[in-house]
Design goal:
Length: about 280
């Protein structure tokens, strides 16, 4: 028996679940898990269905599902389990290390094809894990030239997602457009908050009692893309800047890895500037 994940988003209407399940049953697909959500404000329907069965012609099934759904419905049939990713980095290692360790032990749910950095700081570490590292210097280049070099590297591989693991360069609208819906970023706070350099020093100086991190999709609006997941840690007067940085990095790793797991398992729908996440 083969595994199949069915993802559907469309305009809401009466009888959708019945129509969908009847089609799947007609193709002898056994539903082992089904989650659905209706965004009543926008009259939108989302569902994730895990099935097993023998499917000879996925395109035929997709066509039949679309015939039984409202106009402009989106249907994705996913049989490939592991995604392929490229990771972009600058100097900080903590998020990259978590990704590469999980990749090494086959628990990431994806395969890291390459790491691209605008510094050479993480080249040796990445090489020890056995992953190709590409250094693209951003100095004395305009943004378009730098990004063209990065895209040339990415396009050598079949990549489903780009993961910004503390990559500190702001991407252009053209770059984001080329990989729309495929770029995941980790931000060092709940958004928006403490923008700019030294966020944990800012938090320390402000005397915050909660710090957090946000994983989100990247859009043209800096740090304002659809949020995938967020977490917080409580801190107090005993935390200096060093302790704040350590706590912040720990939560950044947790949030990014959780977001990647949800995405790699096809549990995230983007709806406007929000997400529907079936955990």
């Amino acid at each position: 028996m083969n595994a199949l994940t069915v993802l559907i988003s469309c305009r809401d209407q009466v009888g959708l679940v019945t129509h969908i399940t009847h089609v799947l049953a007609a193709y002898q697909l056994n539903i082992i898990a089904m989650r659905e959500f209706v965004d009543e404000a926008n009259k939108a329907f989302f569902t994730r269905i895990a099935c097993t069965g023998e499917l000879e012609n996925p395109e035929k099934l997709k066509k039949k599902l679309l015939e039984n759904l409202p106009n402009a419905a989106e249907v994705n049939l996913i049989t490939k389990q592991e995604k392929q990713i490229a990771v972009l980095v600058t100097k900080e290692y903590h998020c990259l290390a978590e990704i590469l360790i999980k990749n090494h032990f086959k628990t990431l749910g994806a395969n890291v094809q390459c790491v691209i950095g605008n510094y050479e700081s993480l080249k040796d570490f990445t090489g020890k894990i056995g992953i190709p590292y590409f250094y693209v210097d951003h100095n004395n280049k305009d943004k378009s030239e730098f990004e063209a070099e990065v895209k040339t590297i990415i396009n050598q591989f079949e990549v489903d997602y780009l993961v910004l693991a503390k990559f500190m360069r702001i991407l252009s609208a053209d770059f984001v457009k080329d990989y729309a819906g495929k770029i995941i970023n980790i931000h060092h706070s709940f958004l928006p908050a403490f923008i700019g350099a030294n966020p944990y020093r800012q938090a320390f100086e402000r005397g915050v009692k909660i710090i957090g991190a946000t994983a989100h999709f990247v859009t043209d609006n800096l740090d304002e893309g659809p949020i995938i997941t967020q977490h917080t840690n409580h801190v107090d007067h005993n935390f200096g800047v060093k302790e704040m940085v350590h706590a912040g990095k720990e939560i950044e790793k947790k949030v990014l890895l959780e977001a990647l797991e949800l995405i790699f398992e096809d549990r995230v729908f983007v709806s406007g500037n929000k997400t529907v996440v079936f955990k």
